[in-house]
Write a structure and sequence with these properties.
This protein is mainly alpha-helical. The protein folds into 2 domains: 13-63, no CATH class; 71-245, Up-down Bundle (Methane Monooxygenase Hydroxylase, Chain G, domain 1). It contains 11 helices and 3 strands; from the N terminus they run H-H-H-H-E-E-H-H-H-H-H-H-E-H. The protein has helices at 13-26, 32-48, 55-63, 71-90, 121-131, 133-142, 156-169, 187-193, 195-218, 220-233, 238-245; strands spanning 96-103, 106-111, 235-237. A 3-stranded antiparallel sheet has the order 2-1-3, sandwiched between helices. Helix 4 (71-90) crosses helix 10 (220-233) and helix 5 (121-131) runs antiparallel to helix 7 (156-169). The longest helix is centred in the last third of the chain and has 24 residues, at 195-218. The chain is globular, with a radius of gyration of 21 Å. 31% of the residues are buried.
């Protein structure tokens, strides 16, 4: 569909739904305030040019005029996010709402999580594997990893470390004194002060990374298909992801 696919009576309902769906996928990870600003600026552009708002006005606003990524970095982002999606799908953690590698800070996967069984150790261990799956995918495809899974509290390693620490200290699954509940405000301080605890937490992370690697090696064709599609299109909605993962 072009920016101005119209009939004599205006855009059809299917055209409108298609445009909204594409924009919704493009806008993954943005806040409501971001969206309001983008719409307002798109209207201002259209008003200055004395024409209706076009799809490209909104898409340009969502992308914030960012330059295209270098191909090598774009490929790595695609591999990384595809890894998360494959493990999430295979371990049946929930539906995948969309994936993008066109964000200011790299890739982003909009993942939903089923509630059934989510309070069990097995589910939390599967969640750990999913968090480390981007790193595992990079290791499989490139035989080395980037800093993309680390570097901040919200990174894959940051989130996985906090979850693994919680399993040991506050969720009742610890190898030592599992009945004690400890609310650790700063994981870094706790782990640095307790080498034995750090070793147990790291062992959980190693086990999760191995699990993610096994899943991805067993689904290499899916990983390659999803990576290629994500590299080419940069943004995939739920239907596109499901079609690729189901081999259609």
């Amino acid at each position: 569909m072009t920016d101005q696919a119209m009939t004599n009576t205006g855009p059809s309902e299917s055209d409108v739904q298609s445009v909204l769906k594409r924009l919704g996928t493009r806008a993954m990870g943005l806040t409501g305030a971001d969206v309001e600003r983008i719409v307002r600026e798109a209207r201002q552009v259209a008003r200055r040019q004395k024409r209706p708002v076009r799809y490209k006005d909104l898409e340009d606003g969502i992308r914030m005029n960012r330059p295209e990524l270098p191909h090598d970095l774009r490929w790595r982002f695609a591999v990384h996010e595809a890894g998360h999606a494959i493990v999430h799908h295979v371990l049946k953690l929930g539906p995948i709402q969309g994936i993008t590698i066109d964000m200011p800070d790299g890739g982003y996967s909009l993942l939903a999580f089923q509630r059934s069984g989510s309070d069990t150790l097995g589910y939390r261990e599967d969640l750990l594997a999913m968090l480390l799956a981007g790193r595992a995918a990079e290791q499989i495809v490139f035989c080395l990893v980037s800093v993309g899974s680390a570097g901040s509290d919200d990174s894959d390693l940051g989130r996985a470390t906090r979850l693994a620490l919680a399993l040991e200290r506050s969720l009742g699954f610890g190898a030592v004194q599992p009945l004690l509940y400890r609310d650790d405000k700063d994981p870094t301080v706790v782990l640095d002060a307790h080498p034995d605890l750090a070793a147990r937490v790291h062992a959980r992370l190693e086990k999760a990374l191995a699990k993610a690697t096994d899943v991805l090696n067993g689904n290499r064709e899916r990983l390659d298909r999803l990576t290629a599609a994500l590299f080419e299109q940069q943004v995939l909605d739920r239907e596109a992801v499901e079609s690729i993962l189901d081999g259609e």
